[in-house]
Amino acid sequence: MLSKLQRATDKARLFLQIKNQALSTLFFTRHVSMGNTSPSKVQALYELCKTSFTPSGSPPPSSHAIQKIYSLLDTVHPVDFGLKEDNPDDDRGHGCFGLNQLNWTARWAQPITFLDIYECDSLTMCIFCFPTASVIPLHDHPGMTVFSKILYGSLHVKAYDWVEPAKILESKGPGNRGARLAKLAGDDVLTVESGTSVLYPKTGGNLHCFTAITPCAVLDILTPPYSEEAGRLCTYYHDYPYSTFGKGAAIGEGEEEDYAWLVEIETPDLYMRQGTYIGPRVV
Predict the structure, then answer these.
(1) How many CA atoms does the CB half-sphere of 117 hold within 13 Å?
(2) Phi, psi torsion values for 33, nearest 5 degrees
(3) pLDDT, tens digit, 9 for 90 and up, residues 59-71
(4) Quick check: 144 and 232 in contact, CB under 8 A?
(5) N or C terminus: fewer CB in 10 A for the chain?
(6) Which residues, 6+ apart, have CB-to-CB distance to 105 below 8 Å?
(7) Sign of the alpha-carbon dihedral angle for 95, 99, 103, 109
(8) How many beta carbons lie within 10 A of that of residue 10, not counting itself?
(9) Burial profile 246-281: b = 16 or more Cβ within 10 angstroms, e = fewer
């Protein structure tokens, strides 16, 4: 009798030990798993940016900070921002919105979609989704550093930097604006494989225009952001070949194609709409 009772007690004790071990293991596993959970890439980008950028843009981001942000951007994909690439050629750039039943005419008339991820006094993080053949005209980024990453598709980018010291041709007619000399910084088609590009206040193609070769999406991080109060306004330009105004400035022999005269224009009517960002939020 005692022996049977003892065996039953031992089994009960063993069962409780096994149960407690299992619970301890489960708690430990959950604890480690939660402790090792990495933030979204959106959050990681924000964390890097908030420690590297200032509202005034002075001092500018250090080369070390730029390299860290550059490297992280090279690892991002559409899915990190809640975007999809489902058959982008069929929906003319709206793979991330699922607009698949549009007729041929409407597809070509689709607007550029702007997705606002995060904005504060130090930076703007956003995405532009371009339908095929859509354009953002030549514009500048005064005093700003801008990171750009193609998330999908292909985009033609033509970029300039101002020639310093400034070379300006004053206008000769009433109402006409003067032309300022700029040097070509890039004239390329960019894809996902092109990696991240960075432009600076005075170098790297601070003035650029975008033309979508295929449906595409571009992630932009601007620091500091455009601000009317701070005098950082977006100005649009039309570029003219160097030969248009004659030899208004001395350049090297045979370098005419590397230069253009930029004339400020009125802000164009951009066919753009505000979209809804559905990716991970910045905490």
Answers:
(1) 25
(2) -60, -45
(3) 889 999 999 999 9
(4) yes
(5) N
(6) none
(7) negative
(8) 10
(9) eeebebeeeeeeebbbbbeeeeeeeeeeebebebbe
Please state the pTM of the whole predicted model: 0.78
Among 29-43, 83-97, 198-212, 220-234, which stretch is predicted with the lowest mean pLDDT? 83-97
Evaluate if residue 212 carries a pLDDT over 60: yes
Q: Using an 8 Å Cβ cutoff, are 136 and 112 in contact?
A: yes
* Residue matched to tokens 């031992």: 10
Q: How are beta strands 179-190 and 155-162 bridged, if at all?
A: antiparallel
SS3 of residue 65 by DSSP: helix
209 Cβ neighbours under 8 A, 6+ residues apart: 135, 136, 137, 138, 139, 157, 158, 159
- How far apart CA 70 and CA 75 sit, in angstroms, is 9
Query: How far, in Å, CA of 174 to CA of 211, rounded?
Result: 32
